[in-house]
Amino acid sequence: MFELNNITEMVVREALQDYLRQAKPPCTCDRCQADILALALNRLPPRYAVTLRGEILSTWESRALPSHARIMSELVRAAEQVAAAPSHPLPAENPG
Length: 96
Ligand SMILES: [Zn+2]
Known about the structure:
The protein is an alpha+beta fold. It has one domain. The chain is 53% helix and 12% strand. It has four helices and three strands, in the order E-H-H-E-E-H-H. The chain has a three-stranded antiparallel β-sheet with strand order 1-2-3. The termini are far apart. The model has no long low-confidence stretch (mean pLDDT 89). The protein binds zinc ion. Zinc ion binds at residues 27, 29, 31-32, 86, 88. InterPro entries: ComFB (IPR019657). This is Late competence development protein ComFB.
């Protein structure tokens, strides 16, 4: 069915996966990923578009998206914030 999706969110979710592979933050659990997404998305403009089974039907959405550099800088900022104050205790570092 037709759905309304925030294209910024879809792009930021993909960018987060790239970022986690490269940056290796102290925790990448679902909770910490959700915290990073929430912090980053609150600082980026939402861009809603109509999608059908995940396919974007609007054609104007990509022009209106924040730049990749802007998205990555917000992700880095959000990840640093979560790493500094995680929502849950991190397990003690295991040197093995
Ligand atoms: Zn975590």
